[in-house]
């Protein structure tokens, strides 16, 4: 009964979104306000209409309604309540529904805002965003419907999935479900998929505004950029969080001691993040100087298309990946939609090319503008390198008939120097003034961080001579860090002298008065911390593997692991656990008891390695149980000593903090969201 | 990608129009080429991986010079494992594979390690690291990988005594999956 309500609601949602799509564009084209209003109302109604099927699925997952094929697939009696709810996005059908719902909710929130000067954009914002929403709702309804039931047709060996009862069939109600893939039964399952989806779907808003601005010719004014700034940052930070949580998850459950493997699925998510980051910076050029307008348009189209592309390759398995995904009929529909979106938006951009004239041209190569152009080029170069490596197996197979996959070394070698240059630029660019700057003034701003970082790198280098490349990395990180901190220092000093504030009040007010700028610096700070973690991962990782008997010791990097005993016991979620009790010591005293495990999920016949980790800010000792003999007297362990890896996660938290500050709405200056550009120019010295 | 974003306003209109046209043609050609590539890839994927029927035959020459042809191994259970030294999940199963091989060596079971898109130096280091003793060789021209339409590494195919495929395992194997599978296949009657 409930499932039927969900299905009906889903069907109505599809009709309404289809209606909103066409009514809005008709209203906009003919100038009929009533049609636009009606489209807006329909689009708003889609949100509750999609909420109903989402609630129904969550409820069915929670209450074990195994008559639904989806529930049978991803839920099981052994699963904990929170995992049963998270199973909403644990499989294809549920996750596409969840995706459509998020997108509809975003569109709904945008439509509820006050439409003032950009009223003309509204019909086309509705059109573009609802077209996308319609596509996803359509996919849920027609291709990956989560309300399919299980039926047993007389004489058939296998169960049939169908929405309605096939002839000569009986409804089938399994006793228990298969449950989520064991790798997904992790804390990361709560955070990683939803944040990723928020990031991917969030980009539809700036994209829709950009398209609307182009269609209406409003692209002459750059208001769409101001209007969507927070949306872009919002989508971007969730994509960032999704990337970091995904890395953390991989680190915790995939058991190879790393967090980034350059797998196509990871790359698929990295690419829109890269172009999105470039976009976030290039819009500042338009906002402050009226430059790079065409570029922005191209970037947002690229970002949005890449996020669709990412979804496409992860969902269809077009590019081989170590991640296994179910294959469905989603592929052709998705392919058609990507083609339509990409070609359609490029055509619109072409038709409106002439409305996007720059107000200024580049005045000097030592200027913030030049730094932004360089930064954008670098970001695109990284994107291209990643893209090339990701699709290379396809290209090589097409051209030579041989599938050649480029492994992580390709990505590391090609993107490493580019990322190095980007981080360096991140240290210098904020010190460079808009328009032009004398090299001498820039030198004045840079000498101190430069000298400080050289000092730090020298001290570091003296004690870590075996990795010369790491000294460069550490120098870079130290330089950018001191450049950013120097900016805070200068700001605080200025307030202290002019306003007589104590350092803490000064810092607080400094950030409060210019939250965009200092929020940006804090995001940069987070990136530097992540870079530190990556350097640690690249140069200081140590590993060993060995089989030891009870009482014996395996050592690596100054740590000793003693194997004490092997335990076996049944765990929750229907798993059999084999756990090794070990103690970790560092040159003498025992510092921690570690219990690396191997969980065997009986129903799924799948094992999951759960590492034992000793974690400190400087170092992670990551121990995996790889094998054991039948008597439990000896066991094989793999140990990684991962230096600095925790700074990746800490950096992620700092980035979130910075984004919150950067997007913080200043009550006193709330009006500025809608002012025209000239006033923005004058208010920003 | 598109045109140079700066300095447009000084350029006279006619060259702009021309360069715009060329830029446009390039941009659209790139997009169409990309879409074509995806369509082709999609068509292949929709065909799906091989899981049943006769196992495609292949011959592999090991790093140590030994040569083996699958069709000559009738009567024995064959485990074909695709791996690569750059693949982290492969490392996870390597020790278990070797351990299982030693357990079943000489008992009517053959292990074949197919090293997929790899470099010999790293591959040999990998074999050395895990002390792998069963036959391992490079998949020259990725012929075996294509015949089995693998989706990635590690992937393990199980070949019954009569040469038929009895399923594939995607992702790393762990105790006791392989043992169970081998026991099941060994129990089959042949001929």
How would you portray this structure in words?
The complex is a heterodimer of chains A (685) and B (191). Chain A is an alpha+beta fold and 685 residues long. Chain A is built from 20 helices and 13 strands. In chain A, helix 14 (408-428) packs parallel to helix 16. In chain A, 52% of the residues are buried. By secondary structure, chain B is an alpha/beta fold. Chain B is 40% helix and 18% strand. Chain B has five helices and seven strands; from the N terminus they run H-E-E-E-H-E-H-E-H-E-E-H. Chain B has helices spanning 13-47, 88-104, 120-129, 143-147, 177-186, and strands at residues 59-61, 67-69, 77-83, 109-115, 135-138, 155-159, 165-170. In chain B, 35% of the residues are buried. The model of chain B is unreliable at 1-13 (pLDDT under 50). The chains are: A alpha+beta (685), B alpha/beta (191). Chains A and B meet through helix 11, helix 12 and helix 13 of A and helix 1 and helix 2 of B.
Defining key terms:
A: 685 residues, alpha+beta, 20 helices, 13 strands, 61% helix, disordered C terminus, B: 191 residues, alpha/beta, two-stranded antiparallel ribbon, 18% strand, disordered N terminus
Summarize the structure.
Chain A is α+β, with helices and mostly antiparallel strands and 685 residues long. Helix content of chain A is 61%, strand content 13%.
Give the SSE layout.
The complex is a heterodimer of chains A (685) and B (191).
Chain A: H1 2-30, H2 33-62, H3 69-74, H4 81-86, H5 92-112, H6 122-142, E1 149-153, E2 160-162, E3 169-171, H7 188-202, H8 204-216, H9 223-254, H10 264-289, H11 293-316, H12 330-351, H13 368-400, H14 408-428, H15 439-463, H16 468-499, H17 503-513, H18 515-539, E4 542-549, E5 553-556, E6 559-571, E7 575-586, E8 590-594, E9 597-601, E10 606-610, E11 612-615, E12 619-628, E13 634-643, H19 646-663, H20 677-683
Antiparallel strand pairs in A: 1-2, 1-3, 4-13, 5-6, 6-7, 7-8, 7-9, 9-10, 11-12, 12-13
Helix pairs in contact in A: 1-2, 1-6, 2-5, 2-6, 5-6, 5-7, 6-8, 7-9, 8-9, 8-11, 9-10, 9-19, 10-11, 10-13, 11-12, 13-14, 14-16, 15-16, 16-17, 16-18, 17-18, 18-19
Chain B: H1 13-47, E1 59-61, E2 67-69, E3 77-83, H2 88-104, E4 109-115, H3 120-129, E5 135-138, H4 143-147, E6 155-159, E7 165-170, H5 177-186
Parallel strand pairs in B: 3-4, 4-5
Antiparallel strand pairs in B: 1-2, 3-6, 6-7
